[in-house]
Design goal:
SH3 type barrels
């Protein structure tokens, strides 16, 4: 590889990119392809490109330079950015399809949630203990997320 090429490739550092490689003896559907070949580039060297999955920094990928055909910078849309939200809206109006992100944050299955609190028994209530409904709703939502994470992670 030419030194100037390696220098120019530094443009991709920190950016989400699709990596196109030489063919392999595996076929992937669109979602699996994005999960395997779209990375946030962490390092580019003579040997290859290191990166992590954009939505999970713990999953690391390496692409050998001899198998890389091309690298394509992807444009990340942030729905909280008003300019990007307008782009999303225009796309949805043009295509008639609701746009959903390719990359969704994974639910942390080990997230700690505050347990429902009991209120002290009231004297005029015959010593009954009541559960804080708000905390119970939070617990139910957390349980749903736990099941969703289990379904996603297998």
């Amino acid at each position: 590889m030419n030194g100037r090429t390696l220098e120019k490739m530094q443009h991709f550092l920190g950016k989400v990119c699709s990596i196109v490689t030489s063919s392999m003896n595996r076929s992937f559907d669109e979602q699996i392809s994005r999960e395997h070949f779209v990375i946030r580039v962490q390092d580019i060297g003579v040997d290859g490109v290191w990166g992590t999955q954009p939505y999970n920094q713990d999953v690391v990928s390496f692409f050998s330079m001899q198998h890389i055909i091309s690298i394509h910078e992807e444009f990340e849309l942030d729905p909280t950015n008003p300019e990007h939200a307008e782009m999303i809206k225009e796309y949805e109006e043009k295509t008639g399809q609701k746009l959903s992100g390719d990359i969704e944050a994974k639910v942390d299955p080990l997230a700690v949630i505050e347990a429902p609190k009991e209120t002290p028994p009231l004297e005029n209530e015959g010593g009954l203990t009541f559960v804080d409904i708000h905390s119970l709703e939070k617990l139910a939502e957390h349980s749903k997320k736990q099941f969703a994470a289990k379904d996603l992670l297998g």
